Amino acid sequence: MASRRGGVSLPDRPSNNSSSVLTNISCSSIVTRGKEAAGDAAFVTKKLLRNTGKVTWIIDTTFLFLVVPLIVKMDREQQLNDLELQQASFLGTPAPK
User: Fold this and answer.
1) Which residue segment(s) compose the domain that 81 sits in?
2) 10 bridge partner residues
3) Tens digits of residue pLDDT in 9-42
4) N or C: which end of the chain has fewer CB within 10 A?
């Protein structure tokens, strides 16, 4: 053990045994396959998110151009029907069905 004055004692580093073990582990086929799998997963996730954004854009614009005008038209029709019922009740005539 190497010691220093007024500090913490740390063990001496072994010469080449630990670095060769780490090198062997990092170059093993399992680690290489894991890195490839992680890279493939990241690529697929990126593509999926990009395509999901495109699909979301298409759905949103379709909704804005087709569904929102339909909702506005239905609301106007309902207001017109309510106005006709209100006028009919003021005039005392039977409400149209």
Assistant:
1) 17-91
2) 2
3) 656 655 555 567 777 777 778 888 888 999 999 9
4) C
